[in-house]
Hints:
By secondary structure, this protein is α+β, with helices and mostly antiparallel strands. The chain has helices at residues 35-52, 73-83; strands at 2-7, 12-17, 20-26, 60-67, 91-96, 107-114.
Amino acid sequence: MITRHRKHRIMHGVVEHNGVLYLGGHAAGDLSLDMKGQTLETCAKLDAVLAEVGSDKRHILSARIYLTDMTAKEAMNEAWLEWIGEDDLPSRATIGVADLGDPKRLIEVVLIAAKI
C-alpha cells in the first residue's frame, strides 16, 4: 500500500510504501545563512517532517545532499555530524549542482527512512 503525505502543488513531500518513507527535497528557509547554518536549519526541518510521519533521524537509510558550493562541503559535514549521531549515519551521496532555484540556496537534502 502506498500512502502519500504533505501534498504540494507538484508533489507529495513524503511517500510511504511498505514501511519505507521517501522524502522530497528540503532546504533552509533563511537563505542569509552560510552553509553550516542552512544545513542545521534544513536538518531541523527534516526532524519535524520525520516525526510527523512516524520516524526520526536514527532511522534514515539514505541521504542525497545537493550543494551549490562543493568548497563548503566540510562546513556542511560539520553541521551534519552535529545533527546525527555517528552510530546512526546513513548511506550518503553529496552531489555538486549549479543551481537549487535561488542563488542564495546552498543545500537541499533528500532522504529515505524507515518508519518506526
